[in-house]
Amino acid sequence: MRICKKINEVREEIRKIKKENKMIGFVPTMGYLHKGHISLIRKAKIECDYTVVSIFVNPTQFGPNEDFERYPRDIERDIKILKNEKVDLLFNPDTQEMYKEDFKTWVYVDEYSDILEGKFRPGHFKGVCTVVLKLFNIIQPDKAYFGLKDAQQLIIVKKMVDDLNVPVEIVECETVREKDGLAVSSRNIYLSKEEREKSICLYKALKKMEDLIKNKKIYESKILIEEGKKIIEKEKNVELQYLEIVKISNLKRIEKVEKDVIILGAIKIGNVRLIDNIVISML
Amino acid sequence: MRICKKINEVREEIRKIKKENKMIGFVPTMGYLHKGHISLIRKAKIECDYTVVSIFVNPTQFGPNEDFERYPRDIERDIKILKNEKVDLLFNPDTQEMYKEDFKTWVYVDEYSDILEGKFRPGHFKGVCTVVLKLFNIIQPDKAYFGLKDAQQLIIVKKMVDDLNVPVEIVECETVREKDGLAVSSRNIYLSKEEREKSICLYKALKKMEDLIKNKKIYESKILIEEGKKIIEKEKNVELQYLEIVKISNLKRIEKVEKDVIILGAIKIGNVRLIDNIVISML
Q: Which residues in chain A touch residue B100, judged by CB atoms under 8 angstroms apart?
C-alpha cells in the first residue's frame, strides 16, 4: 500500500492510474477504523480497480467546544487494517497540507445544513462539504463510499455533488451495528460500561417507531415521535437532542409518514454524543 | 463546432476527448462576444488540443437591481464568431439546466468577496464562484482562461481553485482595450456617445497613478488615490464608486506601494457601471 502525506504525491499517483483507465474508488474517513469503514472499503474493492482511503481528522467540521483534540487516533493500527484489506493508497495529510494559513474558500448546502445535526453543530456541514470537495478534487475518484449511519452527511454530500455537477458517484452503504444494534462509531470508545448499556436506547426508540409504522399502521409523526421519546426518556442521564421524521430526499419534516422517510435521532450520554437513524421504505 | 445545451451531452463529448488524452482549454463567457473574449479563445487554441467556450448569462451573479434581464445577448452572432475561431465545443445551457428548482449549494471565498466590487455587488462573487466551479466540473478542462479586466474575479477564482484543490490551471490574459484605452466589455454597448467619451476618465486616472508611481516615485496610496480621483471628479455625471490600491496576492489595501500591486476602480455613468484596473509591477 502506497502512503501519501502530500497532495502532489497523490496527484502524481492518480495521474498514472487514470492513464490506465482504472476505476478509482474512494473512502474518506477520520481514521480509528472500525467495522463500518471496513464494509465501505470492501464495497469499493469489489466495485473498483483501485481503492483510495483517506484518514484526516478535519478540524473545520468540529465546533470550538467539540472533541477535535480528543478524537481517537491510532494511525499505526489503521495502516495495518488497510494493508490487510489490500487498499491501494492511503492519503493521510496533516492539517497544514489541507488548510494553508490563509484558507478562505467554503462550500455549503443551504437549509440542509442548519437542521438536525446542524442545529447542534453549527458550521459542521460547511466543514464537511468543504473537505469532501477538496478530497474529491485531489483523488478524482469515480465512486465515493459513505455510510448511512451519518445519514444527514450522506444526503448533504449527495446534494452538493448534484448541485455542483461533481463528476463522482456517491455510493451509500448500510449502517454496521454491534450485536445489540448500536451503530458502530469511532466515538463509541468514549462510552463507559454503564453508558454503553444506556446507549442502545436510541436504536430501541427507532426500532419501536419502525414497528409502529410497519405493524400498527401508525403514520402520524407526532404520535410516533412521542412513543420514541418515551423509550429514551426512561434512561437516566441520557439527554435527547432531537428525534425527527423527515423526507429522505430533502430532509424536510413531515406530519404524516408517506413514501420514503428517515427517522433521525441524537442523544448525549455524559460528554458523548451519539447519532443514529433508520430508513423506512413504504411500498 | 459542436453545440451542447445539456450537461449530459457535454459530459459524453468530454469523456471521448479525455480518452484521447487531449488537453482541454476552457473559456467561460456570458456571451455577446468581443475582442477580449476572442483573445482568450485564441490563447486557448494555441495552448490546448480542444477548446470549449461556454455562453451562460449566470443569474446568480446579478443582484436584484442589476442588469440581468437587459444584459446584451446575441447567440447567433456569437456562434458565427466561435465557428470562425474554430472552437470545438460551445456549451450554451439554459438557466434550468444549470440551476434546478431546489438548488442549494454555494461556494464562496471569504473576505476577498466582500470588498471592492463585492461591496457594490453583494453576493456577486458567490454567484461567480459557484457557476465557475459547476462549469469546471462539467467541462473538466486542463486550463481555463480569464481576462485581467475582471481582476478581482480572476484573483478570487484562482484563490478558490487553490483552496479547493481544483485540478484546473487558471491562465490570466491581458485586458484588451479600444484605441483610446477603454477596456472592452459587453456592457460598453450601453453607453451613449457622450457617455462613451466620458468613460475613458477611469483609464486616464489609472494611467496617471501609474505615471506618478513609475516616473515621479510617489508611493503613498493616499496621495495617488487623491490624484486619480481628481481626474474622475472632473467629469460631470460620473460617479466614482471606488478607487483602491491593493496587494495583487490577497486584495488587501496597502498604504505604500511596494512589490506587486493592482489599482482597481469602478465608475457609474448614468445606469452603466464600468470597471477597470492596472497592474503595477515593481522591480
A: 163
